[in-house]
# Entry
Amino acid sequence: MTVLQFDLDAVLDALADKGWVVIPHALPASLVQNLRDTCLSVWQQGLFHEAATGRATGQARRAEIRSDSVLWLDQVAAEPAVQAYNAAMDDIMHAVNRGLYLGLAELESHFAVYPAGAFYKKHLDRFQDDDARTLTTVFYLNEGWPQGAGGQIRLYLDDACSEYLDIEPEAGTLVLFLSDRFWHEVLPARQQRLSVTGWYRRRTDRVL
# Structure
């Protein structure tokens, strides 16, 4: 039985119409808290690493571009909260494939911790040499995020990046958008900011 707390058809309509959607209270509060507890536990164990940009041999830490730290969920796949989250995200993937025919095959995702002052400059989520990433997912774990604390994702809505939407990183909010279409950035956070960030990937036969 799904734990999704929203109308999947309405989400599919929004993705088809705009290419993005913001869903408050997407998952049960108990699951959000369990994910937060898991994230903080592995953070305190020192299991995260500083996030890099690029891929393969071009991957490097560039602190002027991003200053968060990450831990891939497959490293903590046995945690009950991670299993429940992955099951919920599978439900979304199957619905998107049925309704929008995107050919999604898997989800890669990680916990992301932004310490106070951390940010991620404007970027696209699809690599130039790898077009598998299709739909970006961001799920927030910050209960009672205060106004003025920063840390919003700024989603640019047009090609010129002149129109944008700032999305508060409030616990339980799920953001979905097409990975190759929307430039976005994470504004500097004034306190620790937690999320689960991921990408639904489609199958690709491209040989690099």
Remarks:
- The chain has a mean pLDDT of 92.
